[in-house]
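Hello Y.,

Per our agreement to keep a running log of every chain we model this quarter, I'm adding this entry. I've kept the format consistent with earlier entries: sequence first, then predicted structure.
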Amino acid sequence: MHILGCGAALPTPHHFCSSQVLNIREKLFMIDCAEGSQIQLRRGHLKYPHLNNIFITHLHGDHCFGLMGLISTFALLGRTAPLHIYAPTGLRDIFQPQIDFFCQGMEYTVQLHEVNHKEPTVIYDDRSVSVETIPLKHRIPCVGYLFKEKQLPRHIRRDVIDAYHIPISQINNIKAGMDWQMPDGEVIPNHLLTTPPDPVRSYAYCSDTMFVPQNAPQLSGVSLLYHEATFLQEQELLARKTFHSTAQQAATLAQLSHAGKLLLGHFSSRYKDKEPQLLAEAQSVFPDTIAAQDGMHIIL
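Predicted structure for the entry above:
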């Protein structure tokens, strides 16, 4: 699971607006698509044909103004595979007329999916990963997204397989957990033929939102939690008024969720050159915290 931060924050001299790309077994999933996202995609040398799903948290411009440019670019590049876009209510009303007007004659289809923003809902599922919504609290309907990797098969011990002369036709069954029976009836248990699979990984993206401690059970044990940290705790009243969170609140949710790591982002422009204070505030509650930066790569 490889995360590229195309943008990490509100527009400041230091950051592009919000957009990230998640790479799971060479499938690319974009989360938010602010203005400038496709520029960062090119800088990251990502393969456009591998990006088939875009997840928008909410329909404020700093999270979706890059969509139409990206859709048009895909058309110019000769894309033929469908592109799926997920967002809360309002997605079709806002973007379908623009697609109809600007993208006539495209060789691919854009499929718009409006998601449930009031309760967790699985909205995407394939052999590699499932994606479910995380209810957030913002000024308009808003959701986060929880990506859960599927369990991989067990690893074959080639030396043991060869020693027992097990045919290649049985490898997949053994990787799935089956024992092997020898011609004389002896059963070779699976744990001698294989080693445990790699641990499954998960990633949660929560922006923009007030502090919602009720989400901790859904996020329990998440490998990496990205959470907005628009304000320092001294501005907690302003955070509540504007439906945002403080760095301390983001860290508290990571602590309640028993997250592996916390990634902070969406810093207010008022904190120009003061991002270390936001990071320090979060680390005082949840030490394993890092701050998002444009172009940052994280491998889980």
